[in-house]
Hints:
Blueprint: H1 5-25, E1 38-39, E2 43-46, E3 54-64, E4 70-77, E5 85-89, E6 92-94, E7 96-102, E8 106-116, E9 126-135, E10 138-147, E11 152-159, E12 162-165, E13 171-179, E14 184-187, E15 192-195, E16 200-203, E17 208-212, E18 219-223, E19 239-242, E20 249-252, E21 254-257, E22 261-266, E23 276-279, E24 282-286, E25 289-308, E26 311-330, E27 342-345, E28 347-349, E29 355-357, E30 360-372, E31 378-381, E32 391-397, E33 409-414, E34 420-422, E35 427-430
Parallel strand pairs: 2-10, 11-13, 12-14, 13-15, 13-16, 14-17, 15-18, 16-19, 17-20, 18-21, 19-22, 20-23, 21-24, 22-25, 23-25, 24-25, 25-26, 26-27, 26-30, 27-31, 30-32, 32-33
Antiparallel strand pairs: 1-3, 3-8, 4-7, 4-9, 5-6, 5-8, 9-10, 28-29, 34-35
Amino acid sequence: MQNPGLPILFLTFIILSAGFISCRKTEKTDTDPGLKLAFSTDTVFFDTVFPTVGSVTDRLIVYNRNKNKLRISSIRLAGGQSSNYRINIDGEPATGASDVEIAGNDSLYIFVKVTIDPQNQSTPYVVSDSIEFSTNGNIQRVRLVAWGREAIFYRSARLKGNIVWDSLMAHVIYGSVRVDTNATLTIMPGTKVYFHKDAYMAVSWRSTLKIAGTLEHPVRFQGDRMDPFYKDLPGQWGGIYLEQGSRDHELNYAYIKNGMFGISADSLGSQGLPMLSISNCIIQNMSSVGIYAYGTSITSVNCVIGDCGRTSVEINYGGTYSFKHLTVGNYWFSSVRHGSAVYLSNYSYDPTGAKKSNPLAQAYFGNVIIYGANDDEIRLDSVTSAQFTYTFDHAILKTRLKTSDQSRFISCLVNKDPEFVDISTLNYQIDSISPAIKMGLPMGVQLDIRGFDRGTTPALGAYEYVKTQ
């Protein structure tokens, strides 16, 4: 006897199957502009240094976390055909693709390949690009990063113990490098340290940075881009941060350029010793501040600080400072500069916005030149609740301050051009007609920043005038 229920069951199965197939065929493509893709990582890193021409492949997974289908209108390499990278989308090698669909709650694999010749000296130390995704009007990017030339690379690294960096290979920082608690980093003569975009160096509590450069072999800090456009571009990297409680830092013959901050020194270190001793150093072309000091102690000899977007020397919340044979030239060609070249204060602000004071026990500027493009290159900003002691002793100053107080302004030339050799190229040596020549007092600093003898009547600033044949 035939089962009367079978035809009904069969018919039901056919109807359900047809409905399922129909739904699959008409799966909705969601065009909501608020929807975004998700990725297995925000940066695809290739951290192998290749001894020869190298090619490495890595994987990126693109997720559609939504229930409906998404259409990616374009996937492309930002660098296009000139990029060192190539991508493979659904088995097709290309530099881009259009109208790529991902089903709801599904994913897409993209394989990324990079080819680099590390022996090519024109190759950047860090080779960067990105994959750009355009979905429903949204633009999303995944960064691509590879080490491009032979060097020692640091990616958000912590340095522990007593570490020495030498000049045998360049040191390249991506993200940051931190000198950890109770550690010491010593950087030997001739060492070159390069920072990728926004990278920085930080020195932690009870730790120390020692830069042991020499006249013949200075230590250099700069951005990792060396093509012509970036040669004199400020703001390429973060800065060197000497954090609260770090101590006994010694910097000699360092050349620091093209960052946001040169050196930032926060609070006191060892009792009775300067937190930072800096000599024969050049800091220039910083988008913000050359030396930023917060309630700390610094001794400086034979230093040059040129062209900073905010201030060259900024002292906040008091402290103790001595600057001898300092040259400050702040003409800053990159944008409008509102700050003065030198700023001194004996206060800061607490979290509620109220002023809190700290004595400026000493701010001594001896045999110095402080000059620039603004009408007033010195700003004094103090509260009466704390000591505020400063002295300009034998100096050329660009200022509107009243300088009649002989205890604070000793033998100063005011608003008299120091006659720098060439401010357009940041050359702050003094010319033969400079009023700085033979205007200084002997201060126990016999050699200038270039190793020339100052004699018994030194010039003001870091550079002695030397007559050429």
